Amino acid sequence: MTPPADQALPPCAERAIVPFMETPDHATDTPAEASGATGIAAQDWATAAADPQYRAAVVDLLGALAYGELAAFERLAEDAKLAPTLGDKAELAKMAAAEFHHFEQLSRRLTAVDEDPTAAMEPFAKALDDFHRQTAPSDWLEGLVKAYVGDSIASDFYREVAARLDTDTRSLVLAVLDDTGHGNFAVEKVRAAIEADPRLGGRLALWARRLMGEALSQAQRVVADRDALSTMLVGGVADGFDLAEVGRMFSRITEAHTKRMAALGLAA
Fold it and tell me: What's the per-residue H, E or C state across the chain?
């Protein structure tokens, strides 16, 4: 499957990374162990980090993830204000706490490898903040769709990248992508709302398509400025993605997106 025209891979030789975090359903779970890891994917951090370009790419990746987790915590706490019931508010608060715990894990890891977490996150803050500002939900249901569909695109991407990382970094990345429970919660609430008022389906489907487009647009801006990270994604670091693999990767992510839309009862 190829992405629709309005969701085409960005230029810059398909250099793309999708912002923010959180995975509700492990749709593209592809750990390196499943296919027999070789090269960097079979090395530990101490060995792999001897390559300064690989080290820089991983610091960028962890910085992007860390700020994504922090932004997710902030956004979920804000979305809780839109919750229609006290129970819904409490559920979002619990998810926000899980995202902050993930942020702390990433911060500790950056500190452990002698990197300043704030400095590692800084290059990604504006793009992520711009994305969240441009896709601020107007109501409770849009917030749920954003968390379920939008954040999952990023999680799928990071899982794909994790298969090429060293063993220590891969374990951390997969751990912070653990399900926070938002997936099933969002599907239940959105499907119930659409069943009660089918007219909501069209509006929410358009909203989800907008999220996909905005995510890829911001992604292009981020990676274009981060040479080590973009080089790792398109090849140039051992076990990085070549251009053909980037295309296949985004096809898998797009397919997973379509399945999530169907789970919500929305057309992709």
Answer: CCCCHHHCCCHHHHCCCCCCCCCCCCCCCCCHHHHCCCHHHHCCHHHHCCCHHHHHHHHHHHHHHHHHHHHHHHHHHHHHHHCCCHHHHHHHHHHHHHHHHHHHHHHHHHHHCCCCHHHHHHHHHHHHHHHHHHCCCCCHHHHHHHHHHHHHHHHHHHHHHHCCCCHHHHHHHHHHCCCCCHHHHHHHHHHHHHHHCCCHHHHHHHHHHHHHHHHHHHHHHHHHCCHHHHHHHHCCCCCCCCHHHHHHHHHHHHHHHHHHHHHHCCCC
